[in-house]
Amino acid sequence: MINVFQPTLADEELAAVAEVFKSNWIGRGRRTADFEAAFADHLGVGHNRVTSVNSCTEALFIATRLAGAGPGGEVVLPTVSFVGAGNAVAAHGARPVFCDVDPRTLNPTVDDVAAALTPKTKAVILLHYGGYPGEVVEIAALCRDRGILLIEDAACSVASRVDGQACGVIGDLGVWSFGSTKIVATGDGGMLSARDPELVAQAAKLAYFGLEQFSGFSQAKENNTRWWDFQISSFSRRSIMNDIQSAIGVVQMGRLKGFVERRGEIVSRYDRALADLTGVVTPPPLPRGHTSSHYLYWVQMDEGIRDDVARDLYERGIYTTFRYAALHRVKAYGSDARLPGAEAAVARTLCLPLHQALSDDDVDTTVAALREVVTRRSAAPGSASAAGSAG
Ligand SMILES: Cc1ncc(COP(=O)(O)O)c(C=O)c1O
Question: What gap in Å lies between CA 129 and CA 40, rounded to an integer?
């Protein structure tokens, strides 16, 4: 099976984990500090601007809480968002307000976001679809003008930049994922960054029960007495990373540039090979000054054939998927929004395999299979394409 996502883990990661085993310190410790420092350096921010957590979903919950989302408040997010973002808003008692997206980029425009803001809006949570930064700079300016916090869900955009500035640190808060499908993969893990280091310190406390001091062991080292006593500033959970995950993360950060370069080559190969395929539209070019992490490669086709094409590819050993199912259609969020750009996009879009371990042969196999099934499905009697309406 050619996977749609896949981590790249090798002997170097294994050796780093072996070191952690030997050190006998597998919890949060020196490696986690190293990973946080490496990540902050990669973003180009001070080390006090990031803190790690055990998943990006947890980072979204913490960021939403720090933004003051609660009963009576609203948080705007594109309907093409990760489910954890919708849940973070709803779980805090705030109302998720879903905005539309551009049907080609699947990112919201600044106008889409502006149209959803109300006096009750506490924050905007912005995804960079597939690693494309989108109008993040314009949306950050809009939020600043309106006194609204911008949280960037940068899980797709670990290495995406706009004019050299890293996605995730353009707004007020940013969150990242190191889950198994992500470019930097540690099994599970996440990072949170905030413009204000005080918010980062609060996030770190929220990730550890709301405890005022970090751990009894570090207190003992500082020669304090009764290091087992504690004070609590807020009631929270335990959502920290450990040194096993972080040791993997340190190695992965060193390989990130190479991963993204390889992903870029694969994207160019898909673009070239699919340029002449009737009925399939490839992602639009990146605007000047924007770079992508190339997390997703998405193609768009007639909605009458998309699902069948996915099934046909699966049967040929090629696993594709669609990210991210529209949240305004999920009943539990209670939305009655009509979002035509998103509705068109979610019906027509399919994400092809994209990860740094794909060989050129894998890409060529995928392209050949896509070419064959799209051509056959489009010509099938009764398909909209056969009737002459293919886009
Ligand atoms: C855009 C986006 N945000 C957030 C998450 C949540 O990440 P995690 O699995 O680390 O909770 C994901 C995971 O797939 C994601 O794709």
Answer: 22
- Domains of the chain in start order, with CATH, are 11-252 (3.40.640.10), 256-379 (3.90.1150.10)
**Is residue 322 pLDDT above 80, yes or no?**
yes
Q: Using a 6 Å cutoff on CB, does residue 245 contact ligand 1?
A: no
Q: pLDDT band at 387, cuts 50/70/90?
A: low
Q: Is the distance from the beta carbon of residue 179 to the nearest atom of ligand 1 less than 6 Å? A: yes
* Cβ 156 under 6 angstroms from ligand 1: yes
pTM above the 0.90 mark?
yes
Mean pLDDT of 13-21: 98
Question: Which atom of ligand 1 is nearest the CA belonging to 57?
Answer: 11
Between CA 192 and CA 386 the distance in angstroms is 49
Q: Is 242 helix (H, G, I), strand (E, B) or coil?
A: coil
- Residue of 52, 53, 55, 56 with the most ligand 1 atoms within 8 Å of its CB, for mutation: 56
Query: What does the pLDDT average to over 31-40?
Result: 98
What does the alpha-carbon distance between residue 343 and residue 352 come to, in Å, rounded to a whole number?
Answer: 20
